[in-house]
Design brief:
Rossmann fold, 24 helices, 31% helix, alpha/beta, 3 domains
């Protein structure tokens, strides 16, 4: 006979039927055992009320014996939500048979019980307490015969019965009622993580294949709640097909590292020390989902929900509105109130009910801290990741790193092998010339692991800004796939006559010279000529403020306002407040800002950096040369040309050649030694010399020039 051949009745208690293998066999006799206060009476009453709720025509009977008075049983039962006062006495019938047991011999008790069952037409019977009957009998043979007759007579009466007895598990192998019973459910208390917990264990259930390991449960106003997350998820199918479209994290640089985002169905651990930005990253991930029309679910296990609300508000989102509209569900449980199995069940129900596309646990290490056993921690991690996979969501599990173990990327060291991906947020103190104490702390993000994703490896700088996290991932701008399109020539009339070929974009120029020779004027001329030929211009002014740059444009007969308003001209400087402000003390972040700005500019585009000196004095020689090399490489594009301005007086030790080598073209402004012509009081004429232009034939001779407004620098073929 298989389980399919056995008719079952449901207990009506969520998850308990699953543990039992489907339910309680019809007409069976079952024992609910355990120490006093274990929850036996509540469990039995809950089964009765759930039976009449599920079976509109059924009746149930509750018989009290010589233990707890019936009045108390009813009074305490009324405080539970499952107790239905309208059905009390009609379909859930209570009787006290204590006086019969006390006054009459055991031989008549079976008939008396069956008489009560027949009178009430009960399909389900509870006797509480059955131990009181056993204690009233001196002859064990007589009591065994009584148990057998009761079992046979109740089955003949088509009645399923539950006998409540106060016994510990040691009596199961000795007392006759346990041998005769068809099923045994044992309730007990045990210490777990220094707290007392309730457990339920099925010792026996004839004809069924129950789960026989201890199962945690709790008692609430709703009655007994059994937690079987591991068993429940094993019965849920994994979706055969999950969308291959990754979900954006909401952080552009991180999406680039991940080749587009996180694959659906993945669980990703976000690891880092306190204050690393883990919660900020998780919130950006959830809020990006809202923008994409995807629901999010956050379980927050930290102590203060207020700090979470404040952070969401600082990111510019109306939390109350998001929750009211159903886009975001936040379940906050303070650390002291966490019960591992209860919260795991709550997580399972929320995920399977809400089916969010994005899911976050913050902090997962706080959640797992309720158990010290690595095997259990790994098991719970597996359950969470399976739940995420089953609904095709993406889950972020926030994990704190152990302070003295930077090599471990999770608090307990067991989650990393279970999850699909690991993001590590870290920081480091580095020497920095631009700060008073000579050091600076940099933040980093690394994609340590992402299964089946060709992610970018290595640590990458990140910033936490008022709008969230920015990852400074810099990559060379992609070259247009349409190679048949020839970029238009570069118009640079000042030096065009010194080059035999037509000037072109996709080059980096350096204008060098001492102060007062017109380097900035040359840069402005280069920008103006571009604007007049419909090129966009990104002008970085490192020495003067935004409004002073505008005045300089005006002095060369170009009014910049219309170009600024249209976006054809963008001026950035470190001195003015607002959106045009930049920082020169962090070259890597500066390069990230320039890269992002360039992506927004129309093409062709001219980038003028006036000047490189403030960057150079804020970092070491090696850092500066690395910045120049990265800038010229990453901003390289067929429709982009770079022009940097440099003060020749600033020494960079013996690496001048290295600086020169990173540029395609070099223009030198100087006042040469004119020998005898350099008379006292006559400093001589400034000259412009095209010293280098990679891949072109040039005229390298120095040419004198004059500066006049509004023309700017004007080359001369003769000397006055």
């Amino acid at each position: 006979m298989t389980n399919k051949d056995i008719r079952l009745i449901s207990t009506g208690i969520r998850n308990l039927d699953t543990i039992l293998g489907g339910g309680i066999p019809l007409y069976s006799m079952n024992i609910i055992a355990g120490s006093p206060g274990g929850g036996k009476t509540i469990l039995a009453q809950q089964i009765l009320f759930e039976t009449i709720r599920r079976q509109p025509n059924d009746k149930t009977l509750y018989l009290t014996t010589l233990s707890e008075p019936m009045l108390k049983v009813v009074r305490y039962g009324q405080r539970l939500n499952f107790f239905d006062a309208d059905q009390f006495g009609e379909r859930v019938i209570y009787h006290d048979i204590g006086s019969f047991i006390y006054e009459q011999p055991l031989s008549g008790l079976v008939d008396h019980i069956l008489q009560r069952v027949n009178q009430s037409q009960a399909q389900v019977l509870v006797i509480d307490s059955f131990k009181a009957i056993r204690d009233s009998v001196d002859n064990p043979v007589e009591f065994r015969r009584f148990c057998y007759l009761l079992s046979v007579r109740l089955a003949s009466a088509r009645c399923t019965s539950f006998l409540i007895t106060e016994s510990d598990c040691s009596r199961i192998n000795h007392d006759p009622e346990f041998a005769i019973a068809d099923g045994i459910i044992y309730l007990f208390m045990a210490e777990q993580n220094q707290e007392q917990r309730r457990f339920l264990q099925v010792y026996k259930l004839r004809g069924m294949n129950p789960k026989m390991n201890p199962i945690p449960f709790t008692i609430t106003a709703d009655g007994v709640q059994v937690f079987t997350s591991a068993l429940a998820i094993s019965q849920q199918p994994i979706p055969e097909k999950v969308s291959s479209q990754p979900l954006s994290t909401g952080i552009f640089g991180l999406d680039c590292l991940l080749q587009g985002g996180i694959p659906q169905g993945y669980s990703v651990m976000v690891s880092g020390f306190s204050g690393a930005g883990k919660t900020t990253l998780a919130l950006q991930f959830l809020l990006q989902g809202v923008e994409a029309g995807e629901t999010g679910l956050l379980f927050y296990f930290e102590d203060s929900r207020h700090s979470l609300d404040s952070l969401i508000h600082r990111l510019g989102w109306d939390l109350a509105s998001l929750e009211a509209q159903g886009w975001l569900t936040i379940i906050s449980i303070p650390h002291p109130q966490i019960r591992l199995e209860e919260q795991l069940e709550q997580i399972r129900e929320a995920i399977q009910t809400l089916k969010p596309k994005r899911f976050v646990i913050d902090s997962f290490s706080v959640f797992l801290s309720k158990t010290e056993h690595h095997v259990i921690q790994r098991e719970k991690t597996y359950i969470i990741t399976t739940l995420i996979q089953q609904v095709g969501a993406v889950g972020l599990l926030i994990s704190d790193q152990v302070i003295d173990d930077s090599q471990s990327h999770s608090h307990f060291g067991v989650q990393g092998t279970v999850v699909d991906g690991i993001l590590v947020l870290s920081s480091a103190i580095v020497p920095h010339l631009g700060f008073r104490d000579g050091i600076r702390r940099y933040r980093y993000l690394e994609v340590l692991k992402m299964r089946s994703v060709n992610h970018i490896t290595g640590r990458h700088r990140m910033h936490i800004t008022p709008t969230g996290i920015e990852v400074l991932y810099l990559k060379a701008t992609a070259v247009s796939e349409n190679t048949s399109v020839i970029p238009k020539p570069l118009q640079f009339s000042l030096v065009q006559d010194l080059v035999q070929e037509q000037l072109r974009f996709n080059q980096a120029w350096l204008v060098q010279g001492e102060p007062g020779l017109g380097k900035s004027i040359l840069g402005l001329q280069f920008a103006i000529e571009g604007l007049q030929h419909q090129d966009s211009v990104l002008y970085i002014s490192a020495d003067v403020r935004f409004h002073q740059v505008c005045e300089r444009f005006s002095s060369l007969n170009l009014l910049p306002q219309s170009y600024l308003q249209s976006g054809q001209l963008v001026i950035l400087d470190p001195l003015s407040p607002g959106k045009t402000a930049i920082s020169l003390s962090d070259p890597e972040f500066l390069l990230y800002i320039l890269t992002c700005q360039l992506e927004q500019m129309s093409k062709p585009c001219r980038i003028i950096f006036d000047s490189l000196v403030p960057v150079a004095i804020n970092c070491s020689v090696e850092e500066f040369l690395s910045f120049i090399d990265d800038k010229n490489r990453l901003l390289n594009h067929p429709d982009v040309v770079l022009l940097d301005i440099w003060d020749q007086r600033i020494g960079i030790t013996d690496k001048g050649y290295s600086l020169w080598n990173t540029f395609d073209g070099i223009i030198n402004l100087s006042i040469p030694d004119w020998g005898e012509m350099n008379q006292r009081g006559n400093r001589g004429y400034p000259t412009l010399q095209l010293q280098k232009l990679r891949g072109s034939l040039i005229d390298p001779r120095p040419y004198p020039y004059k500066i006049s407004l509004p023309q700017g620098i004007v080359l001369q073929n003769y000397y006055d």
